[in-house]
Structure prediction request, 183 residues.
Amino acid sequence: MSKTATKRSGNTAQKSDETMLKELFIDELKDIYWAEKHLTKALPKMSKAATSQELANAFQEHLAQTEVQIERIEQVFEILEMTARAKKCEAMEGLVKEAQNVIEEQPKGTMVRDAGLIISGQKVEHYEIAAYGSLVQLAKTMGENEIADILAQTLEEEKQTDQLLTELAVSGINISADNETEE
Ligand code: FE
Ligand code: FE
Ligand code: FE
Prediction:
C-alpha cells in the first residue's frame, strides 16, 4: 500500500470536498477583496502620473468601476451570509509596487512612462482576470449561479479594461513611430 493511500484512509475527520471547495472560494474572495481595495488607492496615483489624458482617463474610469466591483464582492459575502473580510493579497501588493517603481524611474511627461504604466496596468488586469475567472468557475461548481453571475460582470469589466489598455499602447506606439519619421 502506498503512503498516500494510508494517509487518506487514516484520516477520519476529513472535511467533505464540498466544504473544502467553499472554504477555498471564500479564501480567494477575501484575497480579491483586499486587492480591489488596494487598487482604489493605487489607481488615482497612476492616473495622476500618466502623460496622456487618455491614459489618465482610463485609470480614472477604472477607479469608478473598481468601487462598484468592491460592492459586488460585498454582495457575494451577503449572499453567503458572511461579514465581508479582506485578506492581504501579496501579489497585488507587489504589482502595485512595480507600478510605483515605473513612476519613480520613468521621467514625468514622457510616453515611456505611459508605456510602463500600461504594462503595470495590464499585469494588474491579468491577475484580476485569473482571479475572477476562477471564482466564477468555482461558484458554478458550487451551484451558486447568482454569485457566478455577479462576479462574471466584474470579469467582463477587467477584460474590457485590459483591451482598452492594449489599444492605448498601440496608439502610443503609433505616436512614437510618427515622431521618428519626422526627425
Ligand atoms: Fe478590479
Ligand atoms: Fe492574491
Ligand atoms: Fe481591474
Summary: The CA atoms of residues 121 and 165 lie 8 Å apart.
